[in-house]
Amino acid sequence: MFKKILGTGITRVLNLLVGFITMLMGTKVLGPAEWGIGFTVLTDVTFLLIGVEFLAGSGLVYFTPRKKLSTLMAVSYSWIALVMGFYVLLFWVMSYFPIAFDRIVPRGYEGITLLLTLVYSFHNFNLNVFLGKEKVGAFNWIFLLQIFVQVCSMVLLIFVFDLRDAHAFVYSLLCGYVTAFIVGFVLMVRMAGHEGKDPFFLTAKEMLKYGYVIQLSTLVSTLNRRMSIFLIRQHCTEDAVGVYGAGSQVGEGVKVFGLSVSMVQFSRLSNLTDKEEIVALTIKFLKITLVLTFLALLALVCLPVGFFEWLFTDAFGQVKEIILLMSPGLLFLSAHMIFTHYFSGTGIPKYNLYASLVGLAVTVPATFILIPAIGILGAAISFSCTYMAILLYQWFVFKRIAGVKVKDLWLTKEDWTWCKAEFLAIFAKNKN
Fold this sequence. Notes:
mainly alpha
């Protein structure tokens, strides 16, 4: 199990490094305004993916061990086509209201935003299928391919083709998504074989019932970021969006631990039936994630302001303040990911939806009050407040369902022994 976590962790660290290199090119070469536009486009794509992932998102991890892959593909691909058709129509209608539309999607980037959403939808389908099949290695290799092609494309676009605006970033995203989708699709089709089919509409109904809860529960995190960017653009400047984007991306680098552990957790729990084993693993995963995330945050907040000004340019001096204010929320977020995958992996994602509604009740007033008052620092405070509320709700629900107590979260000698055994097993010779 640790081998899968380690492999996923290495992949996420490499993704973090690539993201860091991309951000350096974006902030130093493109400047804060153009980087802000690129960050806004990426956030818009994330927001649009919510609609797509009702039937083509992380719910596939749960259904892949339970349904025929050919049927899942037919349902998801049909849904992607339907949702993308709706988005095209929506963008066409919104084009008649250019002032409002420009505040949501940067002018001139409407088409590429839709294309990125479409390609990533198919690519994301492949990744979720690999997780559902517990093919974590394939997932990691496809993910690595995506980020490698992305950073190489951005280097070529900037330094060879001399493209010095936000298009360099969004085109590099497109190159990475397309390449990874093609390779992932070939691997997935080979894996599918001839396993037959399930009833199309019955499968779609089950997936929608499960998927709408998961996607509504992810709405709060996307809304938090999207609302923050919208309000920053409205009350501040395009440069401020770039500064906030850089600060949040650096801070969210510590998510590498939560993402690595929770993805392996989700894949594993979706294939387990023993409730006691599920709870025990969840608590172990939670402890590991919190410790690693806390240590990473501690190292990050100790970096001086001058380091970030040297790294990005003097225009990004507020990055340190953003990271400090987001730090509590990032720790809460790491635990939130573990609880979210526990509820999803055990077939009760409704509690993630309820948690999101709690978070949304905090996000809306916090962003509308704090951002007009103190700008990008208000967005960072809103982030922390939101995830504190979400985590508190999830903990109380988990505590009631699993029958655990606060003292169960303390690290014990058994935890260290388990971690040591799992870690040493990575380097042990294969006895089979």
